Amino acid sequence: MQEQAWLHGLAAQLPQVWREGIRVEAALSGGLDSVVLLHLLRRLREVHRFELGAVHVHHGLQTAADEWARFCAQLCTDWQVPLRVEKVRVAADGSGVEAAARQARYRVFAASPAEVVALAHHADDQVETFFLAALRGGGLRALSAMPRERLLAGKCLWRPLLSYSREQLAAYAARHHLPFVEDPSNGHQIYLRNWLRLSGLPAWRAHLPHLARHISASVAQLQEEAALLAEIEAADAALVCRGGVLDLALWRGLGSGRRRRQLLNFARENGLGGLNRAMLADADRVLCRADSGRWLLAGGSLLAHQGRLYALEAAWRQTYPPGQEGCVQALFSDGLWQLRPSENGLAEECFARNGRIRPARSGERMAVAGGSKTVKKILQEAGVPPLLRTDWPVLEIDGECAALIGICAARTHAVRGGLLPYWPPLMRWVMHRRIGETDGFTVADI
């Protein structure tokens, strides 16, 4: 009777993406928790008709790692569940072996062919995660511990066992005589999580028998508050971020906490990494007063220019392929470039000539109405930050700068309504405004 309640409970909290025929992959370490999860999913599959597979991440950190992989393979053969074994290389980068191993696992989960990846975290894991976050000075998101569902690279990570304790899982395994392996490192109290499990939390439970229930209630409340915060952040982002650029004037209208949260999210979502508290405070202080500044992060830098904040990736100089040479029409027909009509685009005859794509040169000039102007000045008037001006791609024809990619064509090669080449990743750096009434041309309408 109790097990039927378990199965009904699991069925009641199936992920939102659930549908008949959906693919589910269970993370299978070979330990008690993951074996119980796979067993339950096999039983659930009989009713709900989904495709079930398993994945074993081979970390190679233990001498028995190969043996565990063989155990999982035999178990899945016996249970008629397809298994993939993924070997990973765990390289600790200062965050510790545990954190590095976790990152490696989640990279494997992100590459899953299934729509849903099921993980065997249970109620005791949730309590440990909460305490670990508190001991490490975590904020609301960290204290919210593990959600039952979340997205990872477009897949749903599902933790269906969060309502059950390890003791309940062990009793289930005993009733069904389920085999599993033991990881000897689980007894090493050098790891903080293991110390909590084996020494810290038992002492707390001796004084507070219902500790797990209270912590679970707190986590549920924190998750509700985190969801509310996420809605507010999404609304703020829709207001201040457009096309991968953050508008500083609109951003300044937010309160301090909301401003800093937008800076954090903007950096993370653009692959730059996180900002520590000191850097975040400095960026907030500077940008509240000035329209320019730069902050170096692990994956690149935050770059403010003329009231806009950009994410500049570390390898930004490789965002376009310089040095290409040949027929102009062929240069821009590889599917990477775009050609759009412009008030100041290239004349049709230019596309039949030979040309070359290269970076702008220091001191280089380009023909404009009434004379010439330095490429640097044109890029400045187009709003391009100084850091990018010397590497901006130009189209050279007969040794002359015939066009600035995405900006304008030279007067000697231009015609109203002609086509202008674009390299889409660079267009975020161009301000959508007129360069100057006396120049006789405008920044392309992008």
Automatic annotation (TrEMBL):
Belongs to the tRNA(Ile)-lysidine synthase family. One of its GO terms (biological process) is tRNA modification. It comes from the Bacteria. GO terms for molecular function: ATP binding; tRNA(Ile)-lysidine synthase activity. Pfam families: ATP_bind_3 (PF01171), TilS_C (PF11734). Its EC number is 6.3.4.19. The lineage of its organism: Bacteria, Pseudomonadati, Pseudomonadota, Betaproteobacteria, Neisseriales. Residues 355-426 form the Lysidine-tRNA(Ile) synthetase C-terminal domain. Keywords: ATP-binding, Cytoplasm, Ligase, Nucleotide-binding, tRNA processing. ATP binds at residues 29-34. It is found in: Cytoplasm. PANTHER family: TRNA(ILE)-LYSIDINE SYNTHASE-RELATED (PTHR43033). GO terms for cellular component: cytoplasm. This is tRNA(Ile)-lysidine synthase. The N-terminal region contains the highly conserved SGGXDS motif, predicted to be a P-loop motif involved in ATP binding. It catalyses: cytidine(34) in tRNA(Ile2) + L-lysine + ATP = lysidine(34) in tRNA(Ile2) + AMP + diphosphate + H(+). It is an enzyme of class 6 (ligase). Ligates lysine onto the cytidine present at position 34 of the AUA codon-specific tRNA(Ile) that contains the anticodon CAU, in an ATP-dependent manner. Cytidine is converted to lysidine, thus changing the amino acid specificity of the tRNA from methionine to isoleucine.
